[in-house]
Amino acid sequence: MVASIFEFVKDFSVELADLAARIEEKIFEEPQAALMQARLYNEEIVKLISEAEELETLYGLKHAERIHRLFRDNAIDEDLYMKFEWIRKKGNKAVHEVTDANVTDMLQAHRFLFDISVWYMQVYVSHTFKSPLYKVPVPMRSNTLNVAELEEFIKPYVDRKLDNMWADIQRQLEGVKAEKKADSTIPVTKAKRPLKLRFMNDVLLIPLEIADKPMNELPVTGSNYLLSELSRIGIDSLKELPDSLDTLHMNLIGIGTHSMEKFWEQLIQMTGTELITEQEQTGHTIQINDDVYSAFNDADFVVVNKTKKAAEFEHKLNKQIVYLLPNKQTTVVVHPETAASHFDLPEKPSYSTALRRFPKSGDNRKTPISYGYSFKFDDTEGLRQFLMNFSILSQMT
Q: How many helices (H) and strands (E) does the chain have?
């Protein structure tokens, strides 16, 4: 048996590699069944990308929604969007129509699955992965054909043009691009950092307009004695509370943990506050400690986006972008043009889909990926001095 050209897929999923091998066995004899399995392969690899890009931390998405979101979030480009959608729709058609699928569709799906798998390897598994040469699959009976006959058999599949469905997906893509462009024109509101209070392993984010108000004006009912005790020790607004409320009751007369729990529950229920549980604090996005946040703030940077992979900061004046990575040693990634013009370049660039507003580079990859140059710091002061340099940079166009 000829080895599958999807052998490299075992580096990230043995199950998908096995599925690809089964698809190849059915291309010529059972093209409709092969298309159904191609749709399944397509769906599973989209799930892997969705997990890597953290699209579903709050709620699950359907297959079509994942593809849509991945493109809207710049995780995939137009070419990949078209291939994902084409396989999805061809697979759906194979499932719901009685008439047999044709071999030409399955051969095209085979090529698309190969391209997608190579892209996944280069982006999420190994940036240095070199793609094997693509080979058009041949029917099992090919051992009875000579080379000339085999080439003649395959030629129509290789030379054919894509069908009307491809044109439909292109029109669909134009609509998605229009939505994406409209979203990009909506200005990002740079709100002031909310007050952060901690209690019983949870964190509550409170807008400053609420934190600044006298507590006796807040909708906190049944806690009058607690409020009077807080006022006795000089705390009349939420912003005057300590960061952690766990031991606050020990400084108050006649107040126990039950009263503090009731007070905390009422704060949670106030409109505008946001509760972050212990699991959410450690699982959904990169965590920025106060010293690092202060360094960015001192240098006039604000957070505009956060994922597990990076925090995106934008300079208030010149709009320069810097990414903070969740490494043990404080690491920031700078735009390649900025790094080349104003800093000593590190030996190698850093590649990541998290660097969504940086340019992409092929660098021997089939599909380009965003890149920049990383700089590491042993202490917060070094980071602060580095970030201060951005105040003198001119705005990039």
A: 14, 10
